[in-house]
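dude i think i finally got it to work??
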Amino acid sequence: MGLLRRTLLAGSAAFAPLLSLIGCGPGSRQAIRHILPSVTDSSISLTCSLTQPVQALYVRIRNKGYVGRQCDSKGLHWSFVLEGLSPDTHYELQLLDSDDPVGEAWSLRTFPAEDVDADVLTLAAFTCAGGGDGFGFNGLQYFKPHSFRQHLFDELLSQSPDAVIAIGDHIYWDLRGGERPPLGRRRSALVRWVIGVYLKAKYGAFDRSLPLIGTANEAVLKRIADEQIADLYGTRFKSTPIYFVSDDHDYFENDDAEEDLVTFPADRFSREAHRAVADLYYPALPGSPSQELKRSFGILRYGSLFEAPLLDCAGFMTLDNENAVLIPHSVEDWLSARIEHSDATHLVVVPSHPVGWTAGKWREWYPDVVALAGFEGVVTNELNFDGATQGVLSANAQKYLWQIGWWEQHQRLLKMLAARSGSRFMLSGDIHAQGAVKVRRSGDYDLSLNPIVSVLTGPVSTSDATWPSFARGIPASQPEWLNTEIITPTSEVNGFALVTLTKQTATVTLHNCDGQCGGADGGSVENIIEFSVL
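look at this
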């Protein structure tokens, strides 16, 4: 009897965190799975999910109730837009199911008014946080465990940022036009079958002929995104505004161009999958050029101190030779006007795909591809996932289906920034690395008197098999058509960037670790690199 009692007590202790999460713990009211907010100077946007469905959900703020918009078919996912708020003001928010509180109240501050001189802004940014919780196969880990990523998030939040930018690849579930990821496509038929059975049993498979919401696809989508977003972020960012910029994997594809498959421009299913995940899990971007583009382009503005155009370089890319673009022409015009007319002290352009680096990937601004030394023919650079060196990065070989129009848009973008007086630089993600460069020459465009700083923020979830040096056989480096000055070397490390801005200064601090952050020893971020971008 004593042994049975001890066993039951041990089981209760083990399941206590889960019981608390789902609202079954002693005296617990917690039923919130995740909360992700964003703010402007006059509004709060909020996306959340619950562990139990409700027919209606409200948020109370200063004795005023706002009704939520149900985003799924079950009553688990809700979003709110609270407008007409006062700038630079702390608000207390409380979710309500009818008159009953859901979880605890929390605070959130709006930004200063756009014409107000804010004294200081602390901005954090990272990339590539998606992927299954510690997912691996055959001794290789593709994505870090949630415990690792959450430890990195907690380190970031300990710096008390005023805002956070999550740059691309919030989801990794590359379908290659099919119903589920063919992760073993370069392996034996037996390995492909085993992986396929595992993925289908755990997550299910999509029916690409059906809508994403209100069909069997919805359950599959939620199994994937609950793990990679809701369970990863939880409620830890509920008092810190966070802005999600999309990239290729958020459309449920890698940017592949091979003779038998080209994954972009995104097809109908990819666009619907991107939209469904965004609607269910995180707020739209503020300041978008149009309602239709609010999931891909927007503006982060903080008083008159800071402005950042946020740019999705995957979802609207085109294949049209010299007219091809990674950002639509209409958005490029909008961006040009923002850069030219912005009165912000610091302007930071945030493209999802980086300026200043190549890993030989297809959808890059640059023609560099991994090829044998001296080879000048056409190269299709597939993912290898074996760590074997396939050659060297070269712009002499021809990257299959690469578009010269992408480079020409890159040149126009740099000219826009160069024409701006005052502080301007770039933050970006996508390539699984961290570093910083000054672009001094781009093609025949001389920037040596006024170089443009570009920063790779650092990935969160990248593990053994997803570093460029393993997945592609070569680390990321500077493109052949650029002349750059290295501010800090490019390193395959997990981490994040912290940007501190005042009226007179702009400082970037790169926080990173060697893979042991949040490990068994509870280690913290180990390396900190600081530099000025002015």
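The chain has two domains: 30-110, 116-532.
im so relieved honestly
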